[in-house]
Amino acid sequence: MEKETLLIHQGYTTENHHDSLAVPLYQTSTFAFENAEQGARRFAGEEAGGIYSRLGNPTVNVLEQRMAAIENGEGALAFGSGMAAVSTILVHLTKAGDHILCTRGIYGCTFGLLNIMKEKYNITHSLEKLTTEEEIEASIKPNTSCIYIETPINPTMEIVDIALITNIARKHNIPVVVDNTFCSPYIQNPLDIGADFVLHSATKYINGHGDVIAGLLVGKNKEEMDKIRSTVQKDFGGIISPFDAWLLIRGLKTLHVRMDRHSKNAEEVFSFLASHPSVESIYYPFDEKNPQYEVAKKQMKSGGGLISFAVKGGKEKAQQLMDALSLIKIAVSLGDAETLIQHPATMTHSVVPEKERVAMGITDGLLRLSVGLENSEDIIEDLKQAFDNLKL
Ligand SMILES: *Cc1c(COP(=O)(O)O)cnc(C)c1O
């Protein structure tokens, strides 16, 4: 079946659930055994069924099966946050003394985690552009045990060629992990392009309604995912609550419809911003002037809902523009129904030293817009009146 159908049906039948059409919420911490013998069988793995919700829960299992299907993996695990998914896979793939090769721009807390791993366990990392075969080959070290990439990169929307990296990684037998949060599984499927693991902050597009913090990890090999479930996930314990899993199941049902509208709205907002005299530069994956447009087209189904743009006049004008908005809310996070705007230099990337930040393209005038599901003309109208207020 196609993705649109899987998002709604995969992993659930109404049988044995009192014919409930909606997936039931099993809000329980533990499961009662019929007798001592059954409890022993479940612990020994001889009988399927519930034991304790950190080890598995029927509501969470539906979410995991659905995610595995739409990312074309063999297994999925749900977590209490995107960062719990990131930390679980990095702990699984590394040991003291190893090296992790990353794209130059990665999510701030992932960067924080890499620094903890370096300081405490001597697991080093390098942040590279990874745009040519020579450069990727030269960046791989004898102790590289994992390649960790994000694309598009936050907030500059640079595109990393997933196939180029996975082809080289395969020769060296190094697993590749892709943070696919910005695209959602509807727009991009890294496992189809050779990645071994794909993860999401489900807080963003997968939930889509701005009311849950959650993470998901999908792997292409079932045995390895089972192993992570029974080791790092179980013992580090960063699991999702049944209620949050239930909300994600509800969110997933409309993912395809929402992503189509996010992308359509973003294209219209992009056209407005790209021709506005107060916009100094603009970054959107499906911008034909983007040097990586061909790579974006190759691996992404549509441009997605995120646009970054620099306002002429730097930080002062960028902040004035934000304050002049009324429909558009000033908030970090992304992928919600509401259009959100944030200022990376003083918000999501404020911990990055200024020199590095500017080298990454995150200038003082840069703003990141997560285009929501409102009427696109209302979004554009709000931006227009805010620019008019700037009097540049
Ligand atoms: C938000 C985000 C994360 C972290 O996810 P949480 O759910 O906030 O823990 C990781 N990667 C990317 C790209 C994100 O946007």
Automatic annotation (TrEMBL):
Stored InterPro entries: Cys/Met-Metab_PyrdxlP-dep_enz, Cys_met_metab_PP, L-Met_gamma_lys, PyrdxlP-dep_Trfase, PyrdxlP-dep_Trfase_major, PyrdxlP-dep_Trfase_small
EC number, as in UniProt: 4.4.1.11
PANTHER family: CYSTATHIONINE GAMMA-LYASE (PTHR11808:SF80), TRANS-SULFURATION ENZYME FAMILY MEMBER (PTHR11808)
This protein's UniProt keywords: Lyase, Pyridoxal phosphate
Coiled coil, from the record: none
Gene: megL
Cofactor: pyridoxal 5'-phosphate
Reaction(s) this enzyme catalyzes, per UniProt: L-methionine + H2O = methanethiol + 2-oxobutanoate + NH4(+)
Native source species: Psychrobacillus faecigallinarum
Root EC class: lyase
Protein name per Swiss-Prot or TrEMBL: L-methionine gamma-lyase
Record-linked CDD domains: CGS_like
Family membership: Belongs to the trans-sulfuration enzymes family. L-methionine gamma-lyase subfamily.
Gene Ontology MF, one: methionine gamma-lyase activity
